[in-house]
Design a protein that fits this description.
Elements lengths: L1 H16 L19 H24 L3 H4 L20 H25 L11 H12 L13 H10 L1 H11 L6 H26 L14 H16 L38 H9 L18 H6 L9 H4 L5
Protein name: Ferritin-like catalase Nec2
Keywords: Signal
InterPro entries: Pigment-catalase-like
């Protein structure tokens, strides 16, 4: 246990050292990869685990294992998540989201067997690193997603939308009816969660974020979306709460409660793009960020660079794969 703790400290520190994405010269934007339907929904479980732990711990003070001890399948406990200082309404919403994520994990596990939970870095330092990169300067005081409702909603803005785009990207490559029905159901609720988070933030769009003095909520969401587009490396797949008219619905609005393409259809992302965004490295081969030991499942491990932390037992002995 002591050895593992040292490894986690090393990985967290490493993920925050270099704020610039890894240069990946020919990034693929194709979702046509060698993967079965089961592989695709197993990949999605990485995001479902992340959301479940982040929502449950923040709203109830307890993680997934306190509600269902079998879904993690022996994967390591998350690091850094804690009870957030949320107002009663936000707490109730996030608690409901957390229970929904348990249902999503159960649905996938019951149908496909599931995968072990990956190591999740939900520390305030990790969130601060992503926010600082989005804004382009160090927060002062340091950004803490658990400090208040506004910070928590801004941190939540980063995660569920990525899962939404992943489901949209997976659907065209699914073969079997039962998996298509499962993913359609998952996508519906994920979309609703993202819409609620964006609406709550839109209501506060003109408020300034203390940690980035002078930057408004709307401006910060734009910067977060820009960062995800930069890391994903496949064009515009992300938009903030307020956009220029040429990005608004039918070029008639600057409000952007629901991010969508010129036809008001949801954007899609491939597994490669999602790994680049969630690792924070811009490279699906090189873990970091929210998944410091890499995501789990065949798709994620297929892309993983075998040299990554090959000398670190906690990430190379197969226990967390």
């Amino acid at each position: 246990m002591f050895k593992l703790s040292l490894v986690l400290v090393f990985l967290i520190a490493l993920s925050g050292i270099d704020a610039s994405p890894v240069k990946y010269h020919n990034p693929s934007c194709s979702g046509n990869i060698s993967a079965t339907d089961v592989d695709l929904v197993h990949f999605a479980m990485n995001l479902e685990f992340t959301e479940a732990e982040f929502f449950l711990k923040a709203s109830t003070g307890k993680g997934l294992d306190a509600f269902n001890a079998t879904l993690a399948k022996g994967g390591p406990a998350p690091i850094g998540a804690k009870k957030a200082n949320l107002d009663p309404i936000t707490n109730r919403i996030i608690e409901e989201f957390g229970y929904q994520e348990i249902g999503h994990l159960r649905a996938i596990a019951d149908m496909t067997g599931g995968i072990p939970r990956p190591l999740l870095n939900l520390t305030k330092e990790n969130f601060a690193m992503f926010m600082d990169r989005a804004v382009g300067r160090r927060s002062n005081p340091r950004f803490d997603p658990y400090a208040n409702s506004l910070n928590y909603l801004l941190a939540s803005y980063y995660i569920p939308y990525v899962g939404l785009t992943g489901y949209v990207g997976a659907i065209p490559y699914l073969v079997y009816f039962n998996i298509k029905r499962l993913v359609a159901g998952l996508l519906g609720v994920e979309s609703g969660q993202d819409g609620v988070i964006r609406t709550l933030l839109y209501e506060r769009q003109n408020e300034t974020v203390e940690e980035y003095g002078g930057v408004t909520v709307a401006e910060l969401t734009n910067e977060i979306s820009n960062l995800r587009n930069e890391l994903g490396m496949c064009g515009i797949k992300d938009e903030g709460l307020c956009v220029p008219p040429w990005l608004g619905a039918e070029n008639r609005t600057t409000s952007n409660i629901l991010a969508a393409d010129p036809y008001s259809l949801s954007y899609d992302r491939t597994p490669q793009e999602i790994l680049r965004v969630m690792y924070g490295t811009g490279d699906e081969r090189w873990p970091g960020g929210f998944w410091p030991c890499g995501a789990n499942g065949r798709i994620a491990r297929m892309f993983l660079d075998e040299r990554y932390h090959g000398n670190v037992d906690a990430c190379s002995d197969g226990k967390y794969y």
